# Entry
Amino acid sequence: MLREITRQKTDILAERAASILTIGGCSGGGSGDAGGEAGGCSAGAGGIACEKDSASGSVSQRACAFCGARVVLNPITDAFHIIHGPIGCSSYTWDIRGSMSSSSDLYRNSFSTDMSETDIIFGGEKKLSRAIDQAVKAHHPPLIFVYATCIVGVIGDDVRAVCKAAEKRHGIRCVPVQSPGFSGHKAMGYRLAGEAILEVVGSEPVARRQAHGINILGDFNLAGETWIVKSYLREIGVNVVAGITGDSTYEQLRRAPEAALNAVQCAGSMHALARKMEDRLHIPYVNVSFYGIEDTCASLVGIAEALGDAATIARAEAFCAEQRAACAVLLERYRANLEGRRAAIYVGGGFKAISLIKQFRELGMSTVMVGTQTGRPEDYEVIRDIVEPGCVVLDDANPAELERFMLDKGADILVGGVKERPLAYKLGVAFCDHNHERKHPLAGFVGVENFAAEINRSLNSPVWQYL
Ligand code: SF4
# Structure
């Protein structure tokens, strides 16, 4: 009965048409149509309008710029993160990632200046200054990030000046993150976080590089995934100088210029930083993804090739061949249960969506709907090339669109995050959590098994027969 009620058609907002593409058709969900062939082909590069502000009234699944900055910087484990704003901004992003730490747990707290009406009328700079003093006295952190939130942008507190004075007073790094929520959407926050990281990393190239040393950008050590990737790199003779920002510390970030290469996983959050590090520190970068067999192997071999050492390339190829064979045996166990089923994907960044499409293919499943919050034109070009005709592609979708296309396309399972879970469950569609709060690793060859097992458990749960 529930399914019958929710099958009523939802109209697509006219402003959203160019951000919805049906493969084999053209962009434009089409007002009132089932998504695709109707509507004008007014999209930009990648065949779809993306990297734009959300349409008013669309209730985007994206978070604000402050949240974007917070998710990128939060995994720096020995940093002290002070949110200059009302307590709500702080609680919204408290322990926001399932990032793990090999040392300090300081980052898992959320500290706030708890601004109230009086601070907003008379200014919050003195209160911020006192908060920094208190943090230094109680915790002696080597690095403090101060985040400006919406109200700070409105009243104009000079966060940079307060941080500069605190640096002088205490002799530690105190870095402002100019991230009022209204300054853009989540991807703007990523860029602002990148600016803050660059302030810590510095802009001075080092004289001697580590020939086999790399930085990993855009892996946040969710459920220990950075450690898994590091173990593979160790196998092929590659050392990780700094995780940016998974399981990172102030000292690691300071050593990042010693790396010979940057491996960029989450391009949406780290591409701008990688380009600046290439310009200023002369560190080249390659794009990687450690989700699924195909992309994990391509990434390990790609890193080895970029380092240009024949022995490392040979080790990477041999290691991947071994792991690929082991995974193939394992996936065979699941294929019988999953073959022919239809997947829908809605995630934050393009790289993850691309890897997931390939992972579903490895399981014998097809992707019938795929979308991202912050995908780039080049991501959508790849997506367009690897999905099958009829697949609906969405940028910056809203809940109504996700529900509509899941039902129209007959999706059996949705992969997404905390905000997408209830959409799937209320439609009686299975769900797999691939967001940053999760506590189980989905990266690397270990993640291949965890992912297949979770998809199998969710899709074939007996609960669906009772809806
Ligand atoms: S939109 Fe503004 S008020 Fe809301 S969480 Fe983001 S920074 Fe805070």
Remarks:
- Residues 64, 66-67, 85, 89, 92, 149-150, 181 surround iron/sulfur cluster (CB under 6 Å).
- The longest helix spans residues 310-338.
